[in-house]
Amino acid sequence: RPETLTPSVVIVLDRSVDLYSPLLHEFTYQALVHDLIDLDGGNTYTYTLESTDGQSQSAEAELSEQKDPIWRQLRHWNISEVSQTLADKFEKLLKDNFGMQAAKQV
């Protein structure tokens, strides 16, 4: 046996394991939003909300770099970093706004 041969490696995997998906899909905030939310025209989300008098009305949210500074800052970040950053921003918002603290306790 020649000394120049390298040893072979055999990897046995269960066929139910999908090895390619984690490698092919981004784990960014933008990718998650596009996977989970039906965006009209690529960046507008239309939803229904209920007013204080019980009436339903349609509203839109636009994910735009020009209109949404949080989207501009976080859209290319890893989703785990975004999750922590948004939680921190929300806590700061509650801390800085006394009225929101009272509403949270109700």
Q: Quick one: how many beta strands?
A: 2
Strand content: 5-15%
N- to C-terminal distance: 78 Å
Structural class: alpha+beta
Which descriptor suits the 3D outline?
Answer: elongated
Biggest sheet character: 2 strands, antiparallel
* Computed CA radius of gyration, to the nearest angstrom: 23 Å
Determine the mean pLDDT. Answer: 84
DSSP helix fraction: 40-55%
Strand order in the largest sheet: 1-2
Poorly predicted runs: none
Following the backbone from N to C, one meets helices and strands in this order, namely: HHEEHHH
Number of helices: 5
Your description of this structure?
- This protein has 106 residues and is of the alpha+beta class.
- Helix content is 42%, strand content 13%.
- It is built from five helices and two strands, in the order H-H-E-E-H-H-H.
- The protein has helices at 21-24, 29-36, 69-74, 79-96, 98-105, and strands at residues 44-50, 56-62.
- It has a two-stranded antiparallel sheet with strand order 1-2.
- The protein is elongated.
- 4% of the residues are buried.
- The mean pLDDT is 84.
